[in-house]
Each structure stands twice: as structure tokens, then as C-alpha cells.
Amino acid sequence: MALATGNGILFYFLEYKLMPAIIATVITFLASYYLIRYVLEYFIYRKIKLIYKFIYSTKANKREEMYYQYILPKKGIDEVREDVEKWAAQQSSEIANLKKNEAFRKEFLQNLAHEFKTPIFAIQGYVDTLLNGEINNPAVNVRFLTNASNNVHRLSNLISDLDEIISLEMGEQPLYKESFVIQELLKEVFEALSIKSEPMNIKCSIKKGFDFPITVFADKEKIRQVLNNLVVNAIKYGKHSGYITAGIYKIDGEKVLVEISDDGIGIAEEHLSRVFERFYRTDRGRSRNIGGSGLGLSICKHIIEAHDQTIHVRSKLDVGTTFGFTLSTKKGE
Prior knowledge:
Layout: H1 2-15, H2 18-56, H3 62-71, H4 77-131, H5 138-169, E1 177-181, H6 182-192, H7 194-197, E2 203-206, E3 215-219, H8 220-236, E4 243-251, E5 255-262, H9 284-290, H10 296-306, E6 311-316, E7 320-328
Parallel strand pairs: 2-4
Antiparallel strand pairs: 1-3, 4-5, 5-7, 6-7
């Protein structure tokens, strides 16, 4: 505008005519306006379009091309800056998640390798010892074959648990839901596991006041597996002459909360967020000595989530642990 005004004033003083000066001012203004607009579009907005194409990282469809052609040029620099900052924040978050997942993947593979190596190396050691002459030693051969057989069973159980988790994750295990009384299933699980709890003098029971029959709608055998895993876990880490109790709570008339509590060694707070991960152990050495595949809680989580329900844990060291999960009471839920 200043350039056009200055040019008009100069033209007026040269010609001393007002109209030609006004015409010169208008022509100069229009020429400079379109020139500047063209330069801005070519050198700035085209670069901005390239930035947006880089952000979206895909070949533009017709709608995006229309956006680039008509909507984007109307955006101010501040709006573009905000878009780029949002994209940068999103990319930063995605990179952080990828790094976290990569760390979990590496840890999972390390744990998987360790879980397989332990029984395989044990079997190899027993078999090699027998083949090197101890097969004819009655004091050794039966014991070594028994130990080798136990490790084969451990390896078989590990593979079965892994296969089940993969099937659950891929939705390949259908749920056969039915109505059943949750207290009756709990009593069946406690009775079946009494062979494990009685040697430690651990008492398994349903809390007083929670024995009134409550019907749930779920896959009975899958929930049996969840309860079995939770109770076995409570026995493993329980105290001698301790207790395991079950509580059943109604929630808003549509769900029930089932809790399995023990007075065992407990779980440190820093481990609580990861106890449902595959192979995660709060005390690796002691956990592996106790046995198990390290997949029980992960299987529980997958089964409960397949029912569109939730599972959680509360715990304190040397006080005990409580695992809880919800179930629906209505058909079709």
C-alpha cells in the first residue's frame, strides 16, 4: 500500500493531474498485491503443503487434494504451527509407545527363551547321564527318568498355555456362556485344589455373608480356569496355616465382583501394574523355584477381557493379595 501511494504521489508531481495519479496508485497496488500473493503462495504455502503431505505420509485422495488446494491456503501461520506441534506431539507419543513395546517384546523373548531352556537343559542332562551308563544303575535310572518326565510335562504345559493365550488374543476360542451359581463353582474349585492347600494347612472358604446364591452369565469352564489359576497362585505364595477367602459383591444389578484374597507374602507396589504380563515374575528366582509357566495371570486377564469384563489386583507386602474380576449377571451382556 505504501509503495502504491508513493508511486501515485510521484506520478502526480510529474504530471500534475489527479486522475492519472489515482490510476497509477490503483495499478501499482493491484500489481504489487498479486505479485506478493503469488510469491507467498509459491514460496511459503507450497512448502506448507509439502509439510502437510509429509505429516500424513500417504498419497492424497480427492478430499485431501481439495483440502490442500482450497482450505489449507486460508490457514494462518499460527494455525499451521499448531497443526505441526500436534503432529510432533503425536509422533513423540507413538515413538515412546514403540520403544516401550519393543522393550516389552525383548523382555518377553528373553523370558520365553529362559522358560524353554530350563526344562530342555534339565531333560538333556538326565538323558545324557543315563546314556553314559547310569541307565543300568537302579538307584539312579528311575529317579532321573521321573525328573525328565516331570520336565517334559512342564514343557508341555508351557506350550499349551502359550497356545491358549495366542488363541484368546486372536479370538479363536469361542465363549459358551451359560447361567450358573458362582458360589457353587467356587466350592468345586476349592475342593479340587484341596490336595494342594491341605499340606500347607491353608483354609479355603467363602466369606460369611456371601454364601447367598448369585447367578452369573459366563463361560463356566473358562471362569473355572480363572478361579483355579487365582487359587493356585494364592496357595503357592501363601503362608503355612493361612487362609484364602472368596467374596462376591453385587454391583448395580448387572454385574458382580468376585474377589480371591489371601494372607500370603504379597506383591510390592512397583510390580502391581505388570503382574498380568506374560512371564512377568515379581521375584524371578523364587518364582521359578516354586514352579508354574508364568502365564496363569495373563490367561486370567485374557479370559476376563474376552467376557468384556475387568480384572484387577490389590496387594501389600507381608499382608496379602486380592485379585478381583467382574462378571455379568444378565444374558446377552
